[in-house]
Design a protein that fits this description.
Layout (H helix, E strand, L loop, with lengths): L1 E3 L4 H4 L4 H8 E2 L8 E6 L5 E5 L6 E3 L14 E7 L4 E5 L2 E5 L4 E4 L6 E5 L7 E7 L7 E3 L5 E5 L8 E7 L10 E7 L5 E2 L3 E3 L3 E8 L7 E7 L2 E7 L4 E4 L6 E4 L4 E8 L8 E3 L6
Parallel strand pairs: 1-3
Antiparallel strand pairs: 2-21, 3-4, 4-11, 5-10, 6-9, 6-11, 7-8, 7-10, 9-12, 13-14, 14-15, 15-23, 16-22, 17-24, 18-21, 18-23, 19-20, 19-22
Length: 275
């Protein structure tokens, strides 16, 4: 498991392009027949992927976790971005289709990722520490809380699918779901905001090879950007905005962990004040 220590907001102002990417961008996820994990020091989040092909992939605790098993003191969100597959949790199998979600609670000991009849699932993983244990629970698209926001006139018409949240799948810290932009819309999370009470991770997906998303980050009066491509993730500290503009429409998985779970707990950064 790779460990990322992120630059502070003061240091971030001085980073060049490569240094900015090294600090805040996760690349190379979703390799076939592998589980990949990256830990970071913002709220002790762990971001990863599991792509089983011919054999199941067990999720074990890396030595650096000092844990008997991965979810000994953690909870885990799983969202399948590929073909159908399943996740086995303590002997119980949970089938996950494309864009379906599974929450795995603290205390779950044996976790494994499995393909279904030669399919190629791509499981995205996001984990935070947990002091409470909630039951493992699956949700499909029909179970998600669906929020339609924005408009075509402002190029930000989008649908937010909330899976793990206050009024959905219960969790200790983790809040998770994904956003899908309508055709012709390219802006996400604009007007921008920060939330000092939690960090966030964006995993962009369904971006064509010939396109990109300019992910905006940094302090509202000291913004920076990273060019993000398909299935790359951006780590977003509490002090940073997290918004983006693409060369086409796209999707992204959002996930948060911190002091509270209120989706609307935000500190606005008005567009006129951005620098």
């Amino acid at each position: 498991m790779n460990i990322h220590y992120l630059a502070s907001k003061t240091e971030t102002r001085l980073l060049d392009t490569e240094e900015l990417r090294d600090n805040f961008l996760l690349d190379g996820l979703f390799e076939p027949s592998q589980i990949q994990l990256a830990a970071c020091d913002i709220d002790r989040a762990i971001v990863g992927s599991a792509c089983p092909v011919d054999e199941s992939l067990p999720l074990e605790a890396p030595e650096s976790m000092r844990a008997a098993y991965f979810c000994e003191r953690r909870e885990l969100g799983v969202l399948n971005l590929g073909e159908a597959g399943s996740v086995t949790v303590d002997g119980e199998s949970h089938d996950l289709g494309n864009r379906e979600c599974l929450y795995i609670g603290r205390g779950s000991k044996e976790i494994a990722f499995v393909s279904s009849g030669g399919s190629k699932p791509q499981f995205y993983l996001l984990s935070y520490p947990a002091h409470m244990a909630y039951p493992t629970c699956k949700a499909g698209l029909g179970d998600a809380n669906r929020l339609a926001l924005g408009s075509g006139d402002s190029c930000n018409e989008r649908v937010i699918y909330q899976y793990i949240h206050e009024n959905g799948i219960r969790s200790c810290q983790l809040v998770m779901g994904f956003t899908e932009l309508a055709k012709g819309s390219v802006w996400n999370t604009m007007p921008a905001h920060t939330h000092d009470r939690r960090s966030e991770v964006y995993l962009y997906f369904d971006i064509p090879e010939t396109d990109t998303v300019l992910h905006l980050m940094g302090e509202p009066q000291e913004t920076r950007h990273i060019c993000v491509h398909d299935r790359q993730a951006v780590l977003s500290p509490a002090w940073s905005i997290h918004a983006g503009c693409g060369t086409t429409n796209y999707c992204f998985v959002w996930g948060m962990g911190g002091e509270n779970q209120r989706f609307d707990d935000m500190d606005p950064a008005p567009i006129a004040d951005l620098r």
